[in-house]
Specification:
The protein has one domain (2-123). Helices cover 71% and strands 0% of the residues. It has five helices and no strands. The chain has helices at 2-28, 30-33, 44-63, 68-91, 103-123. Helix 1 packs antiparallel against helix 3, helix 3 (44-63) runs antiparallel to helix 4 (68-91) and helix 4 packs antiparallel against helix 5. The two termini are 28 Å apart.
């Protein structure tokens, strides 16, 4: 059981730091993220900045044990929502830094997104069966 807790703590730290770093990048390199914001949303800078705020908050929230459970669920929903930008990039063949990406890269990115969703839900214990019985 201690090994399971260690793995969960390591994954929590990695995911938290990853989200915080990506969130900070939304403020330090806003222009890099703007091209993938779906045109229908408008105001790409706004969406880049607001998602950066959410990423930082979720990264911090998942690391703090008292907020981990609900932050992990919010993180899973967030990952589903922001995939719209990744899908937009894939479907419309949008380049980043004048570089277009092959389909395999987009598939790997989708798999990575799905893995992060599962890890977030596992960390927050949303995938665990309850040990309590209904009477």
């Amino acid at each position: 059981m201690a090994k399971n807790i260690l793995v969960k703590n390591v994954l929590t730290t990695i995911l938290g730091i990853f989200f915080i770093n990506v969130g900070i990048a939304h403020f330090t390199d806003t222009e890099w993220f703007e091209p993938i914001v779906p045109e229908v949303l408008g105001a790409p800078t706004f969406w880049v900045l607001i998602t950066g705020v959410f990423e930082i908050a979720l990264g911090i929230g998942i690391v703090i044990p008292q907020t981990r459970r609900y932050s992990s669920l919010a993180m899973a929903f967030f990952l589903v929502a922001v995939y719209a930008g990744n899908l937009n990039m894939w479907v419309n063949d949008i380049p980043l830094e004048d570089r277009k990406f092959a389909t395999i890269w987009h598939v790997m990115r989708l798999i990575g997104q799905l893995v992060m969703i599962v890890v977030a839900l596992w960390i927050g214990e949303w995938l665990t069966k309850s040990n309590q019985q209904d009477y």
